[in-house]
């Protein structure tokens, strides 16, 4: 954890030196009506959709966070592009959870949910992500 104290300042320096690195801070809340413990400790990823717009490039993970006991999370991350305006990072939230489907009480498999970020704002602004329930599939 000690190293993390240095990583964030380094990101900030890169941001100043290289204006093409774009950082986001997004927070939101998830809830699981079918099992009230399954909104806790859920892995939340801040993803960057096809930053190069090339078909062979997979989406990039910019940052991860875990939800607290209320299902709240704040995830931060930076996306770099190659300096072309059409390559601006296109962030969205990707959630990996075990919230059971409606009418069930357990979920054996991991389930996934994508939450769009329609209006991404750069740090220092904070993006408020819509609250979602995890039991319903996309
Ligand atoms: C989670 O977010 C809600 C709504 O913003 C807030 O009322 C609640 O206090 C938060 N819980 C924690 C543990 O921060």
From TrEMBL:
Q: What is its main location?
A: secreted
Entry annotated with the keyword tRNA-binding: no
One family from Pfam that matches here is: TTR-52
**Which N-terminal residues, if any, form the signal peptide?**
1-19
| Keywords, alphabetical | Secreted, Signal
Instruction: Indicate whether Heme appears among the record's keywords.
Output: no
Protein's cellular compartments: Secreted
Q: Name one GO cellular component term.
A: cell surface
Family the entry assigns: Belongs to the nematode transthyretin-like family.
Please give the name of this protein: Uncharacterized protein
Tell me the classification of the organism that encodes this protein.
Eukaryota, Metazoa, Ecdysozoa, Nematoda, Chromadorea
């Amino acid at each position: 954890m000690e190293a993390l104290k240095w990583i964030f300042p380094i990101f900030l320096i890169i941001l100043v030196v290289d204006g093409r690195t774009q950082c986001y801070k997004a927070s939101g809340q998830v809830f699981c009506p079918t099992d009230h413990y399954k909104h806790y400790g859920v892995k939340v990823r801040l993803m960057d959709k096809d930053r190069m717009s090339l078909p062979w490039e997979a989406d990039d993970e910019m940052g991860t966070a875990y939800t607290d006991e209320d299902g709240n999370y704040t995830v931060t991350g930076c996306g770099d592009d190659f300096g072309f305006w059409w390559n601006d990072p296109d962030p969205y939230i990707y959630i990996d959870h075990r919230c059971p489907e409606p009418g069930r009480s357990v979920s054996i498999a991991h389930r996934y949910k994508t939450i769009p970020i329609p209006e991404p704002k750069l740090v220092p602004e904070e993006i408020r992500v819509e609250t979602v329930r995890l039991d319903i599939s996309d």
